[in-house]
Write a structure and sequence with these properties.
This protein is α+β, with helices and mostly antiparallel strands. The chain has a domain of 64 residues: SpoA-like (Surface presentation of antigens (SPOA), Roll). Strands 1-2-3-4 form a four-stranded antiparallel beta sheet, with no helix packed on it. A hairpin with a 2-residue loop joins strand 3 and strand 4. It starts with 10 loop residues before the first strand and ends with a helix. The relative contact order is 0.14.
Length: 101
């Protein structure tokens, strides 16, 4: 069993997303800017190993950019059971139980 010092966690902070056709993406050159509908005052979602774990807010102080965690996203019920992990099968099961938007 790995110790906490040896565990690797991929963290991502996502400010926004943008949908665009592939042909537009292929036409973009180096240094192209994709505008988002969000601003730096909007909430961000924090992911650990591609699973949402928290929401937060971006804080810019001089040349430093920080993320303040404002809300912890609760684990799905099936992940709270001892020995259950969130893998590919679990994600599909969670998506199937979510009500349609």
């Amino acid at each position: 069993m790995p110790s906490l010092e040896t565990m690797k966690v991929d963290l991502k902070v996502v400010l926004g997303t943008r949908m665009m056709p592939v042909h537009m993406l292929l036409r973009m050159g180096r240094g192209a800017v994709i505008e988002l509908e969000q601003s730096d005052n909007d909430m961000v979602v924090i992911y650990a190993n591609d699973h949402p774990i928290a929401r937060g807010q971006i804080i810019v102080t001089g040349t430093r950019i920080q993320v303040e965690i404002t809300e912890i996203i609760p684990k799905p019920e099936m992940a709270k059971e001892r020995g259950t992990t969130l893998g590919d099968g679990a994600i599909a099961a969670l998506a199937a139980t979510d009500p349609p938007a």
